[in-house]
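Q: Structure tokens for this one, please.
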Amino acid sequence: MAKNRSAVHLTIFGGCLFLFPLLARWISFLEHYVDVMVFVGIYSLVAVGLCLLMGYAGQISLGHASFFGLGAYVSGIITAKYGVNPWFCILLGMVVSGGVAFIIGAPSLRLRGHYLAMATLAFCIIITIIFNESIAFTGGPDGLAFIPGISIMGYALDSVVKYYFFVWSVVLMVLLLCLNIIQSRVGRALRSIHGSELAASAVGVNVAKYKIYVFVLSAVVASVAGSLYAHYLNFINPASFDLFVSIKLLIMIILGGIYSLWGAILGAVLITFLSYEWLHYFGEAEVMVYGAIVLIIVIFLPGGVVSIPEKVRSLCRGSKLKVEG
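A: Here is the predicted structure, written as tokens:
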């Protein structure tokens, strides 16, 4: 039943995504938002992976932008400086990010507590310094330019609409993978770990193995998003992958709903649109706005925006019972 419902939701969502750029052809002011939706798709990839890690497995990462940046720089440097095929570089970025995640996760995830949060925070700070200081490779604070675009069997993704369809196809595939994971034995193991590591271990769940597995998977997904980001913009700089970006990614899943993959995508939509359309006018005060968003959600809507329909239904049921009483 749950799988059928997920398939229906995924089909409807995919249909809406397909229709949006077609609708933008007829409604001129929507054309600009096709470009914004490309970035929404890229950030949705990172948010979905992070939601799987935090919402389902209960493991906190404070530096997920690092893996986003690793994918972007591995793919960007090798294609721009050495002319290697972008597809090979995307795969290489996935391997590098997954390997780094394993190196970080293997020692920290074998222990109970917030060691992963501290390790990823430290890694985010270190990798940002490396991106800034390795000028010969990364271009330093000025960034890395002339990153080539992507083509599929000779078909160049050289327009916003083409890249839109490509990015969202990847998002749908990753979303389908993650939905299958959470509805499988692995998903049940992750939820049991989130509930109680001691209880999960007592019933035979290999806690360390599953925690490392989901952390590596979320890092690999973030790496793919970073590569897509680099090949779309043809330019990257360290500011796109610093600690503030990691915090924005956390806010996305908190705002949308940390316990829902659909909530992660909704949060990516809301934060990306806010960031690109309005929040940049606030300048340095942008951080305060994000802080206010988190406070409001945590206090008044801990389940995120995705939980609003359920809250409305609960209120309606409560009102109906009072009337009948």
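A few notes: The two ends are 34 Å apart (CA to CA). Residues 207-233 form the longest helix (27 residues).
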